[in-house]
Design goal:
The protein is α+β, with helices and mostly antiparallel strands. About 50% of the residues lie in helices and about 10% in strands. The protein folds into 4 domains: about 90 residues, Zinc finger, CHC2-typedomain (DNA Primase, Chain A, Alpha-Beta Complex); about 140 residues, DNA primase, catalytic core, N-terminal domain (DNA primase DNAg catalytic core, N-terminal domain, Alpha-Beta Complex), CATH 3.90.980; about 130 residues, Dna Topoisomerase Vi A Subunit, Chain: A, domain 2; about 160 residues. The strands form 5 sheets. Strands 1-2-3-4-5 form a 5-stranded antiparallel beta sheet. The chain has a 5-stranded mixed beta sheet with strand order 13-12-14-15-16, sandwiched between helices. Strand 17 and strand 18 form a beta hairpin. The chain is globular and about 85 Å long.
Length: about 650
Amino acid sequence: MRFPPSILEEIRARLPVTAVVGKRVRLIKAGREWKGLSPFNAEKTPSFYVNDQKGFYHCFSSGKHGDIFTFLMEVDGLSFPEAVERLAAEAGVTLPKVSREAAAEEEKRKSLHDVLELAASFFEAALAAREGAKARDYLAGRGLGPDIQRRFRIGYAPADRFALRDHLAANGVPSEMMVEAGLLVTGEDVAVPYDRFRDRVMFPIADVRGRVIAFGGRAMSADVPAKYLNSPETPLFHKGRLLYNHHQARKAAHDRGAVIAVEGYVDVIALSAAGIHQAVAPLGTALTEEQLTLLWRMADEPILCFDGDKAGQRAAFRAIDVALPALQPGKSLRFALLPEGQDPDDLVRSRGPAAMEAVLAQARPLSDMLWARELEAGPLDTPERRAALERRIGEVLGRVRDEVLRRHYRADLMARLGEMAPAGAMPAAAGGRGGSWRGRDGGGQRGYGRAPGHWRGGAGQRGAVASVPKASPLLARHPLFAASAPAVSPREALILMTLLVHPRLLEEHCEAIATLDFSDAQAARFRAALVDAAAEGTSDGAAIVGRLERAGLGPVVEQFRRAVRPGDAWVLESGADLSDVENALRQAIILQRRRRSLHSELKAAERALAQDDSEANLVLLCDLQAQITSLDGAEAEVEAVRTQAGNLVPGRTS
């Protein structure tokens, strides 16, 4: 065979359909697919659709349908071998030479698939037999019943050193092929090859077509050196290029528009048993760039879900380094961090699927995790330490290949750094031009000084430390910059007072408010007291009020109560419908996140304009200002409706 199926599959895995089609057709996002004008017929309305998850295109106007190979054959008039050769070169895949050896190699691969299928069936039968009783008890204790066992083809490897070897030999499989499939242990110091997997619960590992290509085994005995053991690398199995459960998760990921990567097989299976079917796992390795590419083919922002311990945090930080060079506009990652000491299996079994869904809903963007990682280096209490952080950020952002994305990351991280700096200090854009902002001179010119941190003022003075540029007259009129802005945000007051008056909502929304950005220091202290109460399991309102008073926050509580808008006052009534109250709380949290995000972006835009007064930076700043104004206007309209309606329809705005 000129082109073995394995080679064609590798080319498809490396080249999304949009990457090939997008060179000939202008594609735009349409839900979970892409659409464009047909390359086969003249048309004004797009009828040509591309689906990366399913790996095909379909043209409704012509009825043509196919993959990346058929597309080149249809559009460029290539033969199949020519299309394969062109795409292989583009994907960096080396094509095998036409030879008897290549044909024999492909035939051997087919035979290895057959051998591994025989092994999977043997392990399944052993689990159902008497010798598998202990393994069945273990699975039952993990909440993995017969249905889920069949879905994932879970099995058991008997403790006998030669059980699988003898079974396969009886079916005519030579020992050399068992060794090549990774099923036997052999070597110079091994007189007789023996079974690699013994007394283990077995998890078959399948390729994207669902064919068994390897195994993972979980030891039943506590004194075994390796609790989990994977097959070695074989002609079929390359662990850094595969994801466990990829073949079953693809459809669910497409239907949900999301994919979740967890750390182990049991986590994937436990999530599937809980109804979360779009989960996959790396195969005993840190996330690789090849695995990241597979994830992005299933969803634009995969969620990486790590265990709630230091090892899980380190794995998240390592994933950032893998992802940064490969990031593209619209392609990123989110990170879901589990409670301390728990993995997805623990969380689902102890608190149910809803708890896991809540963790996933709070997944943090890559930019947040990158910032958290850089802060881990140590305190930032001196100019030298803040300068070191700024330099690290510049070096990290240098790994982002896409220029537009790198610029946006720079603005985001510099805004965060600027918020931490003392008054009067302003970091330069990481990786940007040398020198620092020096203001406008008498001639109204803007430029960069010779030494960092110095500027030339209007009176010709030199040596003054640079200060953050003042807001433009247009921005200065906005409440965000107004000196008369209220000390307490009504929205922040609503969020905190709602949780105080209705402490039953505190446990459910504790993680959400713990990561929420508050503009007021008193609000942050108020929030900290509520989070501490939730951590200690306190759900009694009077006890929480007592805690606040002992912390000296009694007057603050009263101040925040008065700051709640009249139209929202119904939320603080003890008899208010709890579901309506929770809806209002969720809406306030969403608005708070959006407002604070815009606030940070606006600060970054002001700094960017100060450094480069280009039209693009001015447009960006004006757009952000318009978004804030629009958000404030929408809130004002809602407030007016609520105030006019009074308590007739509490908590509803429509």
